[in-house]
Design goal:
By secondary structure, this protein is of the alpha/beta class. The chain has one domain: Aldolase class I (TIM Barrel). It is built from eight helices and ten strands. A six-stranded parallel sheet has the order 1-6-7-8-9-10. The longest helix is centred in the first third of the chain and has 17 residues. The protein is globular. The two termini are 24 Å apart. Its cofactor is FMN. Pfam families: Oxidored_FMN (PF00724). This is NADH:flavin oxidoreductase/NADH oxidase N-terminal domain-containing protein. Keywords: Flavoprotein, FMN, NADP.
Length: 259
Amino acid sequence: MLSMKRVGSSFVSYGTLAEPHIQVRKKLKNKNGHVYQPDGKAPISSTDKAIVDGWSILMPDDTRGDYSKPRALETAEIPGIVNQFRLAARNAMLAGFDGVEIHGAHGYLVDQFLKNGINDRTDEYGGSIENRCRFAMEVLQAVTDEIGGSRTAIRLSPIIDHMGATDSNPVALGLYLVQQLNNLKEPLAYLHITEPRFTREGLKEEDDAEEEDEKMKKRKLCSLLRETFRGVFMSSGGFNKDTAIAAVAAGKADMISFG
């Protein structure tokens, strides 16, 4: 906590908005990724399926290793995980940060519940879009109850297949999520959506062999989310200075994020 206070204070002293990502544990299912997990235990997930499709993890010795098989959370454990997000948000405020951005994108834990390419649960956190979004909304509610909506944001990537986080209907998933955010009693600070230019290992779209019509569908979905969300809209993924300025000028986003 003391070290985080120093970080938060250093940002604020220069007039910079300081917001940490908050997430619980590591990416989907973590040679072997257990080395990064508390007590060397299996990473938690919505599923017990191991990540596939050639993804690898950078090990402490700079070699590449396999993501290890995860442990699917028991239904009764989930409220405790939600509470960890709440505590992380509270600690961020105590450390002097301006707000928090919940990381619900790129194959991290929240995204593992959202996407049906990963989430194979049969309880109230799996199956329908409503059920798969339940964990994300519970996390969001807990955090906003703790620190307020004006200090809370969320990052989502319904369009992105990063880390094997695929969904059979990203349009329906993205629109449902945005509608739920619009229905919140207290507006969020912003919604952060990753553009489809962001691909495996952060490659830009021009480096990707994806078919042009598929890229266009993803761009249209991003625009649709922008049009549907009733709040501040942040975009990121593959921008440079000129394209970022152009995107804001064209009304495609209110803000652009780098890094």
